[in-house]
Amino acid sequence: MANALQTNTNQTNINGLCYKQNDINIHNNIVQISYCLDDLPFPVRDTMQMAIDKRTPVHLLTAHGCTGHCAFCSINSFFKLSQTPKWRGRSIENIISEIKHLKTLGVEHIKIIDDSFVDGNRDIQWCLHFKPSFLIL
Predict the structure, then answer these.
(1) Does the chain have fewer CB atoms within 10 Å around its N or its C terminus?
(2) Rounded to an integer, what distance in angstroms lies between the CA atom of residue 21 and that of residue 19?
């Protein structure tokens, strides 16, 4: 959408976009998303050098969403109409691969920013399996 606005391109070709035109709601083709976060590429880190230079943590996300049912949260409202699971997590192997990748880029400080690190199918056993993985870094 940002590219279309910047280049004054027609928005009718942007999959997943909904907008209003002449008081009519327009819904472009639905985008198929991957339910497995391990299938997604690691985030582009083109501004990360500043964090490395300042020795501040680089953020790492290990899951999307939440399994809670809080009345005040927008996640519940959003996912009522969606076929997407409310919570999707990455595998330990995938998380460790990204940590190793960040280390090769010079990152020394990583901050896991998930509110739902232990959520979904993650429990104490998952955490115990996750912890020893750091010994091989």
Answers:
(1) C
(2) 7
Instruction: Tell the residue number behind the tokens 């009345």, with chain if given.
Output: 71
Domain count, the chain: 2
96 shares a domain with 67: yes
What domain range is 40 assigned to? 34-136
pLDDT tens digits in sequence order for the chain, 137 residues long: 788 888 888 878 888 888 888 999 888 887 777 788 999 999 988 888 988 999 999 999 999 877 777 778 776 666 666 666 778 889 999 999 999 999 999 999 999 888 778 887 888 888 888 876 666 65
If asked whether residues 14 and 54 sit together in one domain, one would say no
Amino acid of residue 128: L
Number of H helices, E strands in the chain: 5, 6
Are 91 and 44 in the same domain? yes
**54 Cβ neighbours under 8 A, 6+ residues apart:** none
pTM value is 0.73
Strands 24-27 and 18-21: antiparallel
